[in-house]
Specification:
It is a peripheral membrane protein. The chain is of the alpha/beta class. It is built from eight helices and six strands.
């Protein structure tokens, strides 16, 4: 819970800075790349959690990573600040929170669309258009297949689920029949 509060504080500051400089998307891309490098490299994560490494050594490791990733100056300074404050371990949570706050700032939603069968592009675009019209926001859908739905679509937007799957409809009919 503490890490969530810390992540939110850092992410919020970076979103505000990105918004002021019109660099929200660039920051997002750079943070995803750096976070991906950390996620894929256990030794790198261990180095930042290891007290045997001095603060200067950790800063140099981060500088090398920043140079390889060709991060912007603002993201580079942000990452070095995380090293200074010993918050690099919070990077995954910061990036996740940044994405959510950046989407809110930009008016973007990322619904999860689950169907029983794979959708073609025209079907995804039709659902996307309907959601954009309903929400008034830009929609960036994520689509997955779950054959247990039998048919229909389940759309999850944050905490709200729109379930028009055959599986759910059959379950409702079953409940009605059992209750009499």
């Amino acid at each position: 819970m503490i890490n969530n509060a810390i992540a939110r504080r850092y992410a919020k500051a970076l979103v505000q800075l990105g918004s002021e400089k019109d660099l929200i998307d660039r920051f997002s891309q750079e943070l995803k790349v750096v976070s991906g490098v950390f996620a894929g490299n256990a030794e790198l994560r261990a180095a930042f959690g290891n007290p045997a490494f001095t603060a200067d050594q950790k800063k140099q490791i981060m500088r090398d990573l920043i140079a390889r990733m060709q991060c912007s100056e603002l993201v580079a300074n942000f990452l070095l600040l995380l090293v200074d404050k010993n918050r690099v371990v919070c990077l995954p949570e910061i990036v996740e929170t940044y994405e959510k706050l950046a989407d809110e700032q930009s008016g973007v939603i990322r619904p999860m669309i689950t169907t029983a069968f794979a959708l073609d592009d025209s079907q995804v675009n039709a659902i996307k258009g309907a959601l954009e019209q309903k929400t008034g926001k830009k929609v960036v859908p994520q689509v997955k297949v779950d054959q247990s739905l039998i048919g229909g679509v389940v759309t999850q937007i944050g905490d709200i689920a729109y379930d028009s799957s055959v599986k759910t409809q059959l379950a409702r009919i079953h409940d009605i029949l059992q209750k009499g």
